[in-house]
Amino acid sequence: MANTAFTNYTVRGKASQIHKLHEIMNEAASHETTEKQATGFFRLKHLVKMLGTDPSSVECAGEWHGLERKDRRTLVFQTETHWRRCEDLEKVMRKRFPEIGIHFFSSTPDEGFYEKDSDTVYKYDYAVDIEEDEMHY
Fold first, then answer.
1. CA 31 to CA 26: how far, in whole Å?
2. To the nearest 10°, the Cα dihedral for 57, 60, 64, 70?
3. Contact 50, 24 (CB under 8 A)
4. DSSP 70
5. If 0-12 CB within 10 Å is exposed, 13-18 middle and 19+ buried, where does residue 7 land?
6. Helix (H) or strand (E) holding 38
7. What is the DSSP letter of 45?
8. Which 3-state string (H, E, C) describes 87-99?
9. pTM for the complete prediction?
10. Which residues touch 52 (CB under 8 Å, ≥6 apart)?
């Protein structure tokens, strides 16, 4: 996918809501084609539909992957979307599960890096990666 935005999500909340969200995401993955299941990348539009929202009413072009339940109240996953993170997916998840907290770190091709912790979104103009005495921006 050209001009890809990469987003890492951590979703925290009541154990019952995290459990149900995890079940829905696993079910959405199981309904994908055999080819999609083999790659481990799943369509965001299909997930939106499984969460109870008409996919044509949201802008969510891309895929999700890497679903992992960290503990009873936390799960993580990643998305790869066109140009920017899929804010509509976050809205759909909060509508279905109002007591969850959605935290993310996102890198976008045009807009830089974003991080959300609690209710604050931070924007960074660059990221620094230090590897064995080398620094990359």
1. 9
2. -70
3. yes
4. E
5. buried
6. helix 34-39
7. H
8. HHHHHHHHHHCCC
9. 0.79
10. 92, 96
Q: Give the tokens for residue 39.
A: 């790659």
Q: How far apart are alpha carbons 124 and 86 in whole angstroms?
A: 18
Residue 97 makes CB contacts below 8 A (sequence gap 6+) with 13, 17, 20, 21
Mind listing the pLDDT tens digit of every residue in the chain (137 residues)?
Answer: 568 888 899 999 999 999 999 999 999 988 877 767 677 778 898 899 999 999 889 988 889 999 999 999 999 999 998 888 888 999 999 999 999 999 888 887 666 666 566 555 545 554 444 455 554 44
- Token pair, residue 74, equals 């936390």
> Could you tell me how many residues make up the chain?
137
Strands 4-12 and 62-71: unpaired
Q: How far is CA 123 from the centre of its chain?
A: 18
